[in-house]
TrEMBL record:
It comes from Erysiphe neolycopersici. This is Uncharacterized protein. Residues 49-68 have a biased composition (Basic residues). Residues 1-24, 40-68 are annotated as: Disordered. It comes from the Eukaryota.
Length: 68
């Protein structure tokens, strides 16, 4: 019985790690795309976009903490 519970915990932990890794990969790709997009903007537009992007990242992090 203990073995089954341990296996279940292990499976859940593995699934959570895989989800976290996938999310990180997507976030890094989105960050790269954002940086590339910023290069084509004027300085003023880029500054506004960076500020908005930073706020969105904070909100996403807050939402993840709330859901977990």
């Amino acid at each position: 019985m203990r073995w089954l519970k341990a296996q279940e915990r292990k499976r859940i932990r593995h699934k959570e790690k895989a989800e976290k890794a996938a999310r990180k990969k997507l976030e890094k790709e989105a960050e790269r795309a954002f940086r590339k997009k910023i290069k084509s903007m004027t300085k003023k537009e880029a500054k506004i976009a960076k500020k908005r992007h930073k706020q969105q990242l904070k909100e996403a992090k807050k939402q993840r903490k709330k859901n977990h």
